[in-house]
Amino acid sequence: MIRLLFYILVFYVIYRLVKSRMRRWISGSEEREIQGTEAELTRDPQCGTYFLKRRGVSAVVRGETIYFCSERCRDAYLAAQTSSEGDTRK
Length: 90
Fold this sequence. Notes:
Elements: H1 2-36, E1 41-43, E2 50-52, E3 57-61, E4 64-68, H2 71-89
Antiparallel strand pairs: 1-2, 3-4
């Protein structure tokens, strides 16, 4: 019985060591991925949410590229821009 408990303890220690090394290895690869790409935060002009620019949805408005957190915010912003342009033309 003591031998079984000893094996369980050894297995647990090895498991924890492997798990911590894998976590460091995975987080290190994510850091390299972020360093290699644009990791800039930007703010959605429609809802005000901050998000990673590289994960955003873009649209060109009056020659300027604007980034949105989702397609829904982009579409709402473009609809509001279209309706405001129609109001100024009246």
